[in-house]
Structures are given as structure tokens and as C-alpha cells.
Amino acid sequence: MRILMKTILSSIVLLCSAPGFSQPDFDNIDIHTLKVRNNIYMLVGAGGNITAQVGDDGILIVDTQYAEMSDKILAALQEISGGAALRYIINTHVHGDHVGGNVNLARSGATISGGNMRRDVTGQSAAIIAHESVLLRLTTTDAGSTMDVDGWPTSSYFEGKKDIYFNGEGVRIMHQPRAHTDGDSIVYFRKSDVIATGDVYRTDAYPFIDIATGGTIQGFLNAAQAIIDQIIPVYGQDGGTLVIPGHGRLSDFGDVLNWREMLTIIHDRVKDLKDQGLSLEEVLEAKPSLDYDPRYGDSERFITAVYQTL
């Protein structure tokens, strides 16, 4: 089973909303769907991975990729749910490859209230849940937001977590301060034992520490530990709790441990060099990530951000 997990399709593109990246060819990208466990699915396409929970109450998704992918995402959701309505969207952070489809997907659904979930429809769009920092950035023109109001979070939280109960399962949304951004959340589906991490964990590249939106290397380390604290493996480092990253393949305990180890080692190497008085240019020339570069690719942006946020 673990071998199968390791060979699952990776995300097709990197974080294309970040400076220096071009947008993908949306016409030639399909949505690939993987059943993770029980009623939890992983949707891979353009931008960040989407986690979908389906059931009698409707559909809940984590992140929305790009607006250009919305029709394909909706078709995939209808196929796995048998035509259920989209009720909740959870945004893990503010970047466009994770929130770009908010408007289209929210308008396709309907908000529900307590009581009879299947009948008591109170709004003409799905509810959007995110940390308060995501709401502030999406609604502040000075921050460069151009998103229509229908894509803004309708329910935000500002303390450590927010809990909801949907499709017979507790869903815990946990803030990860100042990691990838200042508004990151990880989402834990307790009954299914699946975690959706957003971009505080990925398998296909070094982390993007978005300093402009409050990201730091220490926040990434803390987020990696927070994910690990929720995971229970079946044996050793294998199986058990499954982890859906922001980009890349389905993971388990051993994968996240390796990620934390990489973050810790590179953090310590860069810190040691900086403490010796080396400039950023000298640290880059020292190649403190050399042994990890074949696995994660070009490290200049990552090392620069580590140095600047130590």
C-alpha cells in the first residue's frame, strides 16, 4: 500500500502565484482524483492539491486551485459525490493557486445551517472558512487583492483552531503562525485520520517562505512538528495517518519526518554560517543545501529566505 502511495501523481505545477512563475496551460491540464480513505479524496490539477470530503451532508473541500480550473474541479466533485452540493470551502492560505477558484466554486454551492443539513439551505453560495489573516489580505486593496466579494471568507477564526462537524466527522482547522504565510491552516479529518496541510508541507520542492506575507523558517519548523504531533503510524514510520500536501504526492509519517529533518538541518547550517558573520552571498556560495538539492531542486530562494528570517 505504501509503495502505491509513493507513486501517486505529483502536482503538475509549482506555486505559480509566486513571483517569477508563469501560469500553467490550463486547457491541457486535467483533474486527477485519488480516493485517500473512506470519503476523503485528493484532487490534483493546476496549483495546490484539493482535499474533498463527500457524504450525505454534501461536499467540503480544502482549497480551490485557479479559477480557470473550476469547471473541471466541479465535474470531478460531481463524479465522486454523485451530484451532492458543495457546502464548505476551507482555505489553507491566501495564495492564488489555492484560493483562485473561490468565487466560481462558492457560487456553485449553498450554505447550510444547523438542523436538517440536507434541507435547511440559508445562502446561495458555499461557506468559505479561513484564518483571519486570509480574510484581511483578500479584502485589503492595499495588499493587492482584486478578488470579488463572493470569494472572501464568510467565516474566519483568529485563535488557534476552529472545529466543525460535517458528514459525520469532526474536522479541526489549526492555525500555523508565520510559516508559509501568516495565515496558514492545516485541516485534520479526525474519523478518516487524514490531514490536509496546505503549503506548510509539500513533497515536490523546497518550501516557499513568503516573507512578504509573514512567512518564516521557524514557523515552518513549528508547522512540521504540529503535523507530526497529529500523526499515528501503523508500524515504525509507515502507514496510519495520511497526509495530503499542498503540492506533491500523498504522504505518511516517514515522509513528514524527512521533511522536518531537512528543514532542521538546513536551518542549523545557515544559522551557523550567519553566526560566523558570513553575508547572504557567502552563505549561498557555501551551498548549505547541497545534499538535498537533487531531491528538492534549486534552493537559492529558500536559503535566502532562511537567512533573512532567522
TrEMBL record:
Gene Ontology cellular component list: periplasmic space
Signal peptide (UniProt feature, chain positions): 1-22
Gene Ontology biological-process annotations: antibiotic catabolic process; response to antibiotic
GO molecular function terms attached to this record: beta-lactamase activity; zinc ion binding
Main location: periplasm
Enzyme Commission code(s) on record: 3.5.2.6
Annotated ranges, domain Metallo-beta-lactamase: 47-247
Cofactor(s) required, per the database record: Zn(2+)
Keywords, comma-separated and alphabetical: Antibiotic resistance, Hydrolase, Metal-binding, Periplasm, Signal, Zinc
TM stretches of this protein: none
Statement: the UniProt record of this protein carries the keyword Nucleus: no
Chemical reaction(s) catalysed: a beta-lactam + H2O = a substituted beta-amino acid
Localization of this protein: Periplasm
First-level EC class: hydrolase
KW Cell wall biogenesis/degradation (keyword) present: no
Residue stretches in coiled coil: none
PANTHER family associated with the record: ACYL-COENZYME A THIOESTERASE MBLAC2, METALLO-BETA-LACTAMASE DOMAIN-CONTAINING
Protein family (similarity comment): Belongs to the metallo-beta-lactamase superfamily. Class-B beta-lactamase family.
Subunit structure: Monomer.
Record's protein name: beta-lactamase
The organism of origin for this protein: SAR86 cluster bacterium
